[in-house]
């Protein structure tokens, strides 16, 4: 159900469960990483029920998570996509899966774009060895490729472009979005485009939650510095909670995540 009535005495009711919705991956490192991220979310906000559901490939699948919550008497849940843009999974798959649940659900906006996402991307780049160019000549020779999964949905691509623009403002050098699938340019094409502009000191910022095929392929295409997936970075945990809180503050008439402009 996508309507979201609350009892009048909200202080007496338990908080809606936070259900983090991951895509799923055949790489066993992905599931381990996501579970560790959820543990970090629980540590930040003790007492909040935090659960995991997958769209595909891994258990628990989202319908099973929601059915389990209903069986244990949970009345409401906020579904927060562990995704970085408003693609098909956020607009269609997750709401359709939520619609089959017996408890009241609301789908939050995806994680990007947002300053906390930029914090995590910047931190991972720094950990990988990126240093802000010290002078104008070095800045003119530098650039970054923001590697993401990719989507045919123009809103999803627009969200990645906005994240790239925010990261560029933080780094002081151009940041070109690139994609592992379903969209252009690829990481090698983006690297060549920067080189054609005289920017040969190029790093790749990985806009992936966890290790997996796409993250590995994009890292292999990096000409030099490449950051690790965002994983359990504290800013990502805070961002999941921010999306949860914002969904609760949004009027109940807004139930489609496509209508929630990420901020």
TrEMBL record:
Lyase among keywords: yes
Lineage top rank: taxon: Bacteria
CDD domains listed in its UniProt record: CbiX_SirB_C, CbiX_SirB_N
Gene3D superfamilies named in the record: 3.40.50.1400
Keywords tagged on the record: Lyase, Metal-binding
Molecular functions per Gene Ontology: lyase activity; metal ion binding
InterPro entries: CbiX-like, Sirohydro_Cobaltochel/CbiX
Stored PANTHER family: FERROCHELATASE CHE1, SIROHYDROCHLORIN FERROCHELATASE, CHLOROPLASTIC
Protein name, entry field: Sirohydrochlorin chelatase
Organism: Streptomyces calvus
